[in-house]
Amino acid sequence: MEENPCDQMKHGEEEKHLTTKLGGLKTMPFVISTETFEKVASFGLHANMILYLINEYHMSNAMGANVLFLWSAISNFMPILGAFLSDSFLGRFRVIALGSFVSLLGMSLLWLTAALPQARPPQCNGLATESCASPKAAQLALLFSSFALMSTGAGGIRPCALAFGADQLYNPSNPENKRVLQSFFNWYYASVGLSLMVSITVIVYIQDAAGWVIGFGVPAGLMFLSTVMFLLGSPLYIKLMPDKSLFTSFAQVMVAAWHNKHLALPPMESDPGIWYYHKGSKLIAPTQKLRFLNKACMIGNPEKDIDMDGRAINPWNLCTVKQVEELKALIRVLPIWSSGIMIAVSLSQHSFPVLQARVMDRHLIPGGLQIPAGSFGFFAMITLTIWVATYDQIIVPLLSKFTKRSRGFSLKERMGMGLAISCVATAVAAMVENKRRATAIRQGLGDKPHGMVHMSAMWLVPQYSLIGLAEGLNAIGQIEFYYSQFPKSMASIGVALFALGMAVGNLVGSLIVGTVDKLTSKGGKQSWVSNNLNMGHYDYYYWILTILSVINVFYYLICCWDFGSSDNKNKIVWDEEEGNEDELELELELGDHAKGVASPIVFTH
Length: 605
Prior knowledge:
Elements: H1 13-19, H2 28-43, H3 49-57, H4 61-90, H5 92-115, H6 137-157, H7 161-169, H8 177-210, H9 212-232, H10 246-259, H11 302-305, H12 321-338, H13 341-347, H14 351-358, H15 377-403, H16 411-442, H17 461-485, H18 491-520, H19 538-563, H20 581-597
Helix pairs in contact: 2-7, 2-8, 2-9, 3-4, 4-5, 4-6, 4-18, 5-6, 5-9, 7-8, 8-9, 8-20, 12-19, 13-18, 13-19, 15-17, 16-17, 16-19, 17-18, 17-20, 18-20
């Protein structure tokens, strides 16, 4: 979750920037290099991991996929916790520093699993995984501990990195401040894009060509450099103190509503004086939707609830109207958010395509360069990048001529199109796998799961490209939609919702794989997700995802109908004018850029 820098800015911060020599452009080499090394290190471990689990730990295909689903789920959830700790207790610098150290420890443990033969089960020369020795509990504990540490470390780095960099450059007295920030954002995204390209190509190639010891050692070394570079810049950084988190505010509203449950709600047209709000706020009475929460801002007894300055004596018993409406805004988007869970399942299908590509012809041209099986995600990344780069500059101007709307497709249209294209992507995956399986059986490879099929792995490119396009439409559309519904102070919540959706999607993906494996292997039958791709029916598995995705599209349409138009006349006017104008401008700037970071390719692997 990308947190908003202005949530922590306090009175006197302008003076701090003016009177100290901390922060500024001199910190950028440390911030950018830290982010670059961390991204290459962490993302370079995901693409090929299914092969490591199957070949070295003798896991079944279904078991390996489930482990990776669960790892991704934890990795997507931990940034929410990291952002809360940063907002409320530790501050960004400490959270990033701790996250970097924990990530380094996790990668070092993973390297040890490859370097120490005792950390893995004995080598197995047989072709069937079932005939190999299973890993011992201690060996699995070491492996899973490395995954848990890497997820925990990522939870500290990812929600804070962009905002921490913006903290170093925020200087409201500089008339060029906005241009400097824009330059930083551009360099940040360029470094992230380059890091991902390197991780999914170079790191995966090293793992294939030089083995797991070097293949895991390089990311661990890069993570060490990332940690050292970040700490070396410590004397130069601006380190803002933590402040109250929005999560705390939401909790206060729920606790206060429960505490005041005995109060009777007044008629709709009641005296605004019974509601608690800060002086100067436009929100002086709550809306009538989700009325049970309105009790959180009802003044039951002014003498016991309000102090001499007009402030709530106990914020856990009485909240402002604004706090109540912020929680309502979050609850209101939850149905549409839930429609993003199924596409998160589709976006997280990394494991099985790698296994398919491994037994296909991966040469770009006959006798030429062979693409590593784990590098085909590059095509999804390229498609997403092209879409993001061309949408505003080329597609929107063309669409505006026909739609008469300055932004082309509406946000809900973009999200819906992404869901529909994800259905096409999984359907294409099913048809390609059906063709691959039929080709393998014709070649007599039915009982030879590692036999090379005379079929180009380029057949996998369309499904990767379609899933990249679906991501560009739905994932980024989700973040922009949340941002359009929330006040600027809640910009970070949109990224948190997306990360949570990815986490739940990975859990659902694990559930689907486990259920399919269990039900289809009953009675001694061959599982659809068998270790032998040629005897299993991975095409049926993809058709199940397609059917569920189609059902989800109709569910999304119902949610949109129930939500109504986002441009309705009753839309809340938030108190955005409160606070320093420069701070609000930075708040909006960072919120806009948080949309790009929210991509699962960029943010939540």
